[in-house]
Design goal:
Keywords: Hydrolase. InterPro entries: Sortase, Sortase_dom-sf, Sortase_F. It comes from Parafrankia colletiae. By secondary structure, the chain is mostly beta strands. It has a single domain, classed as Sortase (Sortase, Chain: A, Beta Barrel), CATH 2.40.260. It is about 0% helix and about 45% strand. It contains 1 helix and 14 strands. It has an 8-stranded mixed barrel. It has a two-stranded antiparallel sheet with strand order 1-2.
C-alpha cells in the first residue's frame, strides 16, 4: 500500500470568461493510503453482472461504463493517469467519466474514484445531475471482462475545494468504496472554475 500523499487534482475550468468556460471535475488532495496501488490490493469484492458477488481475492477488471439510473447516466469510463505535476487530468470528452488508475478499480478493497464534468460552454455534461442523488440510489460499474459491481449511495456532500476533508473523502474504509465527483456551488468568474466539489459516497452492495 502506498504511504505517500498523492496530489490528485482535476481541473474544473480553464482560463477565460465564463461564457467560454470548460468546467466540471475535481480539485482535492487524495491520500494514497485511501487509494491503494492496484497490484497489492487484496480482499477485494468483485461484482457479477446485475449484482455484486461478494469478497474475492486479488484485483478486478478495469471499469468501462458507469450507469446511474436515478439521474439517467450511462457513460463510458476512461482511465485517467496522473500528470508529471501530480494532477489528475479531467476527461477530454464531456460525455465521458474518468477513473483514477492510480487507485483501485471499483469493487476492489479501497476507495475508487470516478470523476466527470458538470457542464461545458455548450450545456450540461455527464455529471450535471449528480447533485440529485440520494441515499439508496444505485450505481452500476461495468467492467471490461463483462462483470459489474453495484454500489449503493450512502450520502452526498458539497465541500469548498480549499477545505475538502481528504481523509474523510478518500481515506481507507476497510471495504470497497466508490466516490463520484464533480464541480458545484457558485462559479468563480475570475478563476473560470466552480468553488466547490460535489461528492457522492457509495459502498459495494
Amino acid at each position: 500500500m502506498v504511504s505517500l500523499l498523492l496530489s490528485v487534482l482535476l481541473g474544473c475550468g480553464t482560463s477565460g470568461s465564463a461564457s467560454d468556460r470548460s468546467t466540471g471535475a475535481v480539485s482535492a488532495s487524495v491520500p494514497a493510503s485511501g487509494v491503494s496501488a492496484r497490484p497489492t490490493d487484496a480482499g477485494s469484492a468483485a461484482g457479477e453482472t446485475g449484482a455484486a458477488a461478494g469478497a474475492a481475492a486479488g484485483q478486478v477488471a478495469d471499469p468501462v461504463r458507469i450507469r446511474v439510473p436515478a439521474i439517467g447516466v450511462s457513460a463510458p469510463v476512461v482511465p485517467l493517469a496522473l500528470a508529471a505535476d501530480g494532477r489528475l487530468e479531467a476527461p477530454k470528452v464531456f460525455a465521458e467519466t474518468g477513473w483514477n488508475v492510480d487507485g483501485p478499480e471499483p469493487g476492489e478493497n479501497g476507495t475508487a474514484v470516478i470523476a466527470g464534468h458538470v457542464d461545458s460552454h455548450t450545456g450540461p455534461a455527464v455529471f450535471f445531475r449528480l447533485r440529485e442523488l440520494v441515499p439508496g440510489d444505485r450505481v452500476q460499474v461495468d467492467r471490461v471482462d463483462g462483470s459489474s459491481a453495484e454500489f449503493v449511495v450512502s450520502r452526498l456532500e458539497r465541500y469548498p475545494k480549499d477545505r475538502l476533508p481528504s481523509d474523510e473523502v478518500y481515506g481507507p474504509t476497510g471495504r470497497p468504496a466508490l466516490r463520484l465527483i464533480t464541480c458545484g456551488g457558485t462559479f468563480d468568474q475570475a478563476r473560470s472554475s466552480y468553488r466547490d466539489n460535489v461528492i457522492v459516497f457509495a459502498d459495494l452492495v
